[in-house]
Amino acid sequence: MMLFAQSVGRLWAPLLYCLGVTVMEVTFCLGMIWQMNPYLMPKAFCITQIAVFGFCSFFITGVIATFTYATACTVFRATSKNQITDSTLSYRHGYIIPILVLPLIASAGQMTAVIMLDAAQPTNDMHCDASPIWIRFLGYAGLPAVAAIPCFLLASVAAWKLFKAHKITQSIRNPYSNDSLTFAPIQTRAKRDKSPTHPHDAAGTQDIRRQTPSPNALSPQAIPMALIPSRAPLDPNYPTRKFHLPIGASVSPEYPSPLTIPDTSMGRIDDAYEPGTPTSIGPTFASPSHASSHGSVGAHVYENKEDMEMSDSDAYSSMRILKENDSFVGFKHKVFTEEFPPTGGNALKQRELYFSSKLEPGVSGPPQDFMPAIWRLVFFQVSFFSIEILAALSTIIDITANHGAPTPFGTQHVALLLAAWGPCIVFGHTPAIRRRLAGMLCCGRR
């Protein structure tokens, strides 16, 4: 559980859960001193055992209910605003009410009834419990089970929204078709070099017109799903191309020069351009006219504001596309363009282009293992509240069936085991935990 807390980055809820479960399990195991026979246990120990079981049940329920609320807020924010953040999982001072204040009040009410009615009587069980049976509804069989119902519904709704968002992610994870990356039907003008090195540069400004690419010039496999290993240079006489993404609401027939956007957390300007060094403008993505509309995918280009002088024969460029981050409701890809003269030299210009699906500036995607952790959190919460309802089942059956004595082995004993081993079952297969365990084993062997 603590390894999972480190992978999520929030220690308060797993730590409190482990504390409550540990105290309850230790109190239960102390009964082995008297061979797990309530008739041999002292009355003071029986009262203590009843009080500890009741308070720990309230305490654990409050912790999981609070963390369920925080997780649901995270899921709702991510699915409604297309914004992923784990800030809602942080501890807040108001959480002390369901975690500590309400459990203390409920435990005080339970123990008042147990002491006043002398309900700490030994029964055919493995631990001391309240008798008559109906007093158990004031403890683990009552308030925790009642609180588990709305929390179970909240966790179920969060799981459903997370499932729907996952389906949307699968649909947008590969949003490209065969014609998704095409040549823009525009003309690119090159400014005349003040000190031309080629005869045709002195003639003035030239128009580099679009040529029809060959069928093998650009294939769907070149889309940024993996790194393109080879980078064959283009023919020096082959004109520089300009690409656009046909995924906006509408595309104008003519586009301005590359878009300049201030530096944000989504990208940075890494421009090593040297004045006077011939370079070529690499492929850029034209921005759609309605990039800010809901659900649209905008193209962002980050480069120097300076005008760059070039000719179509003194430089070439290559492009390699990297898949930088793939998150669960938004994705961000980075395109690098490297430009350098074919005659040698160390002049290198690298520009970084980003395009994302509705990722707001200043908000980066979550860690790679964050969303799988959220999945397991929601699953654990649904399972825990099911266990809370299971713990009250035997008491409900005994009351409705008018049993004179409680069931020796009931569902509350199964729930006690599941509360301790449930986190291991749910979180044991988390990739981050597997890596941490592997690292611990490697360090132990050294």
UniProtKB/TrEMBL annotation:
| Record field: transmembrane | 12-35, 47-75, 95-117, 137-163, 377-397, 409-428
For the region Disordered, what residue ranges are annotated? Answer: 188-220, 276-296
Q: Where is the composition biased (Low complexity)?
A: 286-296
Q: Which organism is it from?
A: Athelia psychrophila
So which domain of life are we looking at? Eukaryota
What does the organism's lineage look like at the top? Eukaryota, Fungi, Dikarya, Basidiomycota, Agaricomycotina
* Name under which the protein is recorded: Uncharacterized protein
Query: Keywords in UniProt for this one?
Result: Membrane, Transmembrane, Transmembrane helix
